[in-house]
Write a structure and sequence with these properties.
single chain; about 350 residues; alpha/beta; Rossmann fold; Dihydrodipicolinate Reductase, domain 2; 2 domains; seven-stranded mixed beta sheet; six-stranded mixed beta sheet
Amino acid sequence: MYCSRQGNEAMELRIGFLGFGNVARAFARIISEREARIADQFDLRLKTNAIATGAHGCIVSAEGFDLKQALAAVERGEALNTLPGAVDAVDTTGLVAMCDADVLFETTPLNPIDGEPATEWIRKALLRRMSVVTANKGPIAFAHKELTTLAREVKCSFRFEATVMDGAPIFNMVESCLPAVRVTGLAGVLNSTTNYILTGMERGRLFEECLTEARELGVAEANADYDIDGWDAAVKIVALANVLMNADATPRSVERRGIRYITSKELKHASDTGALIRLVARAEMLPSGLKLAVGPEAVAISSILGSARGTTNALILETDLMGELAVIETNPGVEQTAYALLSDLIAIHRELQLKKA
């Protein structure tokens, strides 16, 4: 689905940003550095006309502004309203009401309690007939069916590949490559921060030391408690179950336990038995219904989940026709998450091309 607009040049898309943190800026660098390649390979030109930030202001411009200049201003700690042609928006909600983007990229921080305010911003953007690409798993965990239905009704796209396992094509793989296959179960090591901490502790390092490094690497949530206490993994397994298993769950449905109280002694005992302790997220279809759980588990070192060390993630999909499928993403960083935004953007562009064919 693509939200078509009268008067647009065929191969130009206007884009806006809700959130301009690490992921959004990495995406901005990718599309700026590869501007000519994207235009040549995909016949696609991009014009940025809105950016909402938490610390540098919110701006819109009908004519568009230079994304490289915006990046440089933010990285210097300057306000964005100094850019030529920029008009101040009061706040993010005001920006959604003012901007006229074709595709809005929503990358604001996770709220694992109710998915707000990101869900409401996405809802308002869709109602204004903007397609939305999000890296925020909260709206998928709390409102996937509603937002997907709304996008269909207004003939816009709503895409979210970046929400789980960074740039690994989980949702796109199932949607595009596994027609008629039913996903019956999921098991994954999905949180890079806890993985990094546990791997470090296995090597004799302190919990807090490893957490500090995870923050410096940019893999920890803005509130690292969401990682440590299992909220991030809970939101991810709910997002996966809602999309891939047609569930209607929320993170409150998950039996959740984090790694805060895992000790070096427990890690040593697991190692002595040929295992590693990992924060494992599971979705299982039982006779009583769907069971969702997140918690530390001992997994065999030689197993797929045992391969998840450092910031590596691993996911096993149980299916009716293809048996078990596994996806492993080795030590992803912010650039991989940013790539998922690009992947979704190109998918939207291809939908437009098919519509115009």
